[in-house]
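can u do me a favor
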């Protein structure tokens, strides 16, 4: 089975969005370089960020998100973001009315069941869990193997926390990746068990 990775861009003070669910400058690094990160050409990063990010993105088989993110993005119009094969949505509600049942989205109740479904779909590829409330729940349940964050030099002061409502101490291993890109610091930590 592939690793379960919690991931997002994050402010220096630990937020993935402001109080209004807006990322502000958190994704500016994705347009701050001259190397295309994907085929669309809309995302351009530094060579350093490309060398770190592109191989990781190529490993992702399934992304796990909460219903809130799904609703905010309008379900990406039924097309998983970034070329990911499947999206597992953690929710207590059914798919939206009129949702295309053929779209590779899976609506699952509870984080444990969502991760199990994502691992089944991903096989030996990475299961990426979006940071925030659902990511924090998956992390607190002990289901995350590593934490990746793209730390952006901005302070939000308040907003949506990277680890959601996690309220207990958890130790991570020393960072095994620390890479400086343009307007971003890429970090990777293994989760201590």
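np, heres the sequence
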């Amino acid at each position: 089975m592939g690793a379960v990775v919690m991931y997002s861009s994050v402010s220096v003070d630990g937020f993935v969005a402001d109080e209004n669910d807006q990322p502000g400058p958190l994704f500016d690094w994705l347009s701050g370089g001259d190397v295309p990160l994907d085929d669309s050409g809309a995302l351009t990063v530094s060579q350093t960020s490309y060398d770190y990010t592109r191989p990781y993105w190529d490993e992702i088989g399934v992304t796990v998100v909460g219903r809130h993110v799904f609703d905010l993005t309008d379900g990406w119009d039924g097309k998983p973001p970034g070329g990911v094969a499947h999206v597992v949505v953690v929710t207590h509600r059914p798919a939206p009315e009129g949702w295309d049942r053929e779209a590779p989205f899976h609506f699952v109740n509870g984080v444990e069941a969502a991760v199990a479904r994502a691992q089944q779909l991903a096989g030996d590829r990475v299961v990426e869990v979006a940071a925030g409330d659902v990511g924090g729940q998956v992390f607190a349940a002990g289901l995350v193997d590593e934490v990746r964050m793209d730390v952006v030099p901005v302070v939000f002061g308040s907003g949506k926390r990277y680890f959601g409502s996690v309220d207990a101490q958890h130790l991570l291993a020393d960072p095994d990746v620390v890479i400086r890109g343009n307007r971003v610091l890429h970090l990777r930590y293994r989760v201590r068990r």
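Residues 47-59 form the longest helix (13 residues). hope that helps!!
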